[in-house]
Design brief:
With 54 residues, the protein is mainly alpha-helical. The chain has a domain at 24-54. The protein contains 2 helices and 2 strands; from the N terminus they run αβαβ. A two-stranded parallel ribbon has the order 1-2. The model has no long low-confidence stretch (mean pLDDT 76).
Amino acid sequence: MKPTLSRELALDALMMAVWRRKPDGEVIVHSDQGSQYGSDDWRRFCRLITWLRV
């Protein structure tokens, strides 16, 4: 892990959770509303995953 939370780390953690758990229903992601969760990459990923609610 890294000492700071970057958008890459936040996105990697979400993708790892999706890969490991393989959810079969809707998933809700809670964040602390930090800047890494407002990045273009984060938003793009959330739009691609149609069962993900943020």
